[in-house]
Amino acid sequence: MAHIAKDKKMLTARVRRIGGQVASLERALDSDLDCQAVLQQIAAVRGAVNGLMLEVLEGHLREHVAPMMGRRERAELDPVVAILKRYLK
Predict the structure, then answer these.
(1) Within 10 Å of residue 37's Cβ, how many Cβ atoms?
(2) Most buried residue among 31, 37, 43, 67 by CB atoms closer than 10 A?
(3) Neighbours of 54 (CB within 10 A)
(4) What is the pLDDT of residues 31-86, one digit of tens each?
């Protein structure tokens, strides 16, 4: 997992931010905030986790899958990553 080791500092920082968002969500629940505020916190956590998933998935595709593909198939990788970015946004 060379891409994980290479991006470890950045990925760890993202995980810590996600942890902060989850803690904020827990505080929102404990504070009996209205459901709109709680839903907003949940959406923020979901977006952050999706961003982390995209970073790791893109690294996996480019570092582990692409080298096993032919030139023609590798050319299709960028559009697939673009679709994933739109989907996981």
Answers:
(1) 13
(2) 37
(3) 16
(4) 988 999 999 999 999 999 999 999 999 999 999 998 888 888 888 899 999 999 99
Look up residue 62 and give its two tokens: 């480019």
Domains annotated for the chain, with CATH where assigned, are 2-87 (1.20.58.1000)
Convert the pLDDT of each residue in 1-29 to its tens digit. Answer: 578 888 999 999 999 999 999 999 999 99
Measured between alpha carbons, how far is 59 from 64 in angstroms, rounded to an integer?
A: 8
Beta carbons of 60 and 2 less than 8 angstroms apart: no
Q: Please report where in the chains the tokens 């690294």 appear, as a residue.
A: 59
Residues composing the chain: 89
SS3 61: helix
